[in-house]
Amino acid sequence: MGKLDNKVAIVSGSGRGIGREIALKLAAEGAAVVVNDLDAEPAKETVAAIEALGARAVAVPGSVTADGFAEEFVQAAVDSFGGLDIIVNNAGFTWDSVIQKMTDEQWDAILDVHLKAPFKILRAAQPVIAGLVKQAKADGAPVPCRKVVNISSLAGTGGNAGQANYSAAKAGVIGLTKTLAKEWGRYNVTVNTVAFGLIKTRLTEAPADSGGTIDVEGKQIKVGVNPNLLAAMEQMIPLGRGGTPAEAAGAVYLLCTPESDYVSAQTLVCGGGFDF
Hints:
Layout: E1 8-11, H1 17-28, E2 32-35, H2 40-52, E3 57-59, H3 69-81, E4 86-89, H4 104-139, E5 146-153, H5 154-158, H6 164-184, E6 189-196, H7 202-205, E7 213-216, E8 219-222, H8 227-236, H9 245-254, E9 267-270
Parallel strand pairs: 1-2, 1-4, 2-3, 4-5, 5-6, 6-9
Antiparallel strand pairs: 7-8
């Protein structure tokens, strides 16, 4: 028996890193998961890993910013598993510059993936959730507590030099969360945010001078952190280290469990004790 038995979850950006760990954690507790990644192969690998746990999963690869993606993503949960109980808006990347060097393309790309995409996914989910609630009431059945967890960052709560686009988007996620908590309370949906501090992923572990990049729809985006800066950041964290993707996933999982059914409109900082 898992705490999420018979639940259906959609997790964006779950082919790799933190998103993959979130999908695996939810599946390990009994949820069926719709997996997404920009690239098909990582999404398929996460599905295979979930199926190896004895859980169910399907892949919906593609960009969360693409026209029609949100509707396809939500509908996959209904078509494959018969419902929708958990939404985790996790997909994203960073594209940093100080403001005088930041292009409109950089600004728009980061706002689109971190803020507009979650908005579109939640908008697409509303008629599905409203319909499920209406049906439950018509059947005289209890309305289950559904969960939305939007991913933010300490950059969104306190700002971060060189990340005007990312910080603005992640601050916007918190505002979106608080608004949806008020709008969707009537559906018995809790809406919360997890704001990550330093989590060690492929985006942060590569040295800044290594030339490491990721491909985002044909754009080569530089990744990595200056090792000296990384060491200084870890010294500021009370636990003395960056977090792991599995630990990050644990914070999201907490807000998906029945124990959090009366927690909504909150921002949980997962930062090892560091906060602004």
